[in-house]
Amino acid sequence: MTPTIHRPWQVYALTALWAIKWAEEFLRGVVGTGFYVWARVERGLLEGYGLHLAIQSVLFSAVLAAASFYVMIALWLGKRAARGWGIALALLGEISVLMYLISRPPEFGGDVPLIRTVVIASIVNLSLIAFLMFDTKLATFLGSPRLIGWWAPRPSARERALRDTEEET
């Protein structure tokens, strides 16, 4: 009989979400923006500081895509670092999405599609953060319950003493 890893359902769901975030960031941010920038440069419409900012945007998308891929793999493998990196990356993604409300890019076509995009992305990012911070099954699987702070019940001294005596025998 082959030993199996008993992953909680949260790992499957979060791995799928991070895979979608990776694919979206890579295809839209790196490939799509890369082709857009290249076409604008070829026509002579993008140069100087605008080109510099466009290249920075492509590089930022590449970093976010690589980090999303890392979190996806780390979650699947049960690595402890998946929680911290996942929370940091989801916060960074949330900040970059909220920046749309300030910059108001014209490719959204108006306020309604822009706000819809920001609301949906915010729900996804904040849900990822909530799962990674507060879910005890996920924390136990990843072996990192220290991230859970004052809001989570801690075992009492009696429960710890019972567990320690059970381990000794």
Describe this structure in words.
The longest helix is centred in the first third of the chain and has 34 residues, at 9-42. The mean pLDDT is 85. With 169 residues, the chain is mostly helical. It has helices at 9-42, 49-77, 81-103, 111-134, 136-142, 157-168. It has one domain (9-148).
Characterize the largest beta sheet: strand count, sense, and whether it forms a barrel. Answer: none
Number of helices: 6
Structural class: mainly alpha
- Terminal Cα separation, in Å? 28 Å
Could you give a quick summary of the protein structure above?
The protein has 169 residues and is an all-alpha fold.
Q: What is the fold's blueprint, element by element?
A:
Elements: H1 9-42, H2 49-77, H3 81-103, H4 111-134, H5 136-142, H6 157-168
Task: List the main descriptive attributes of the protein structure presented here.
169 residues, 76% helix, single chain
